[in-house]
Amino acid sequence: MGFRFCSLVSGSSGNCQYIATEKARLLLDAGLSGKRIQELLAGIDAEASSIDGILVTHEHQDHIKGVGILSRRFDIPIYANEGTWAGMRDSLGKLEDRNIRVIKNSESFEIKDIGISPFSISHDARDPLGYSFYNKNKKISVLTDTGVAGNEVEEALRGSDLLMVESNHDPNMLKIGRYPQFLKQRVLGKLGHLSNEEAGVLVRNLDLNENARVVLGHLSMENNFPELAYQTVRNVLEDAGMGSLSVDMTYRDRSTKVYEI
């Protein structure tokens, strides 16, 4: 049993990712009801009671809805930086002090045999984070909910064996869509979300190993669709001579397969 990853769900209606080894099982965000997350875990033969920690990227509801209930129900520690704790604390309900774990940006730590490196990203939240996970010289990284991905983010993602990256919207669909203007500006801004093209350019810039896997996440239901996201990213990679790189999709209503690296 190797280093495993599964996107349980990804999208504006809820986000929850599963990272596991033989010894450790983690959730990155828990933006659905506790009951639904338990069902999704059961669907990949995992138990919520076995989760060793919930790591939180930022305090928006589509990332924290089930965090408090899962922590109370299964005595799970919650890991987030001070800004995120300040933004979400009142939404989580009563927590045991032992399960409140404050982490620092860019300061690595471990949960059992998984090394964890948080890094700062750009989104309209208190202090949002992306995360990279390490086990036995393998690396899994997750980057969603960021309006830009500059040099520091690229360095944090470089060398990933599996990368889940946001491919949120198509700018043309967004511009002619039914979102109000302020929301369009938010999504397109530096504190918003990466477009399909921007996701492709980011992956291209990382120059990943040809055996790496890329998984596209956090697609907008209004301003994107899976085939467009996939083909846009694929076109960028093919133009760069990287057409052999594996690209898969996440889903807003169901889980991906369990990847093992």
Automatic annotation (TrEMBL):
GO molecular function, one term: hydrolase activity
Record carries keyword Hydrolase: yes
Class of the enzyme per the UniProt entry, highest EC level: hydrolase
Listed name of the protein: Putative metallo-hydrolase YycJ
EC nos: 3.-.-.-
Domain Metallo-beta-lactamase as annotated: residue spans: 13-193
Source organism: Andreesenia angusta
Sorted UniProt keywords: Hydrolase
Name of the gene this protein is made from: yycJ
Pfam families: Lactamase_B_2
UniProt KW Cell cycle keyword: no
InterPro entries linked: Metallo-B-lactamas, RibonucZ/Hydroxyglut_hydro, WalJ/YycJ-like
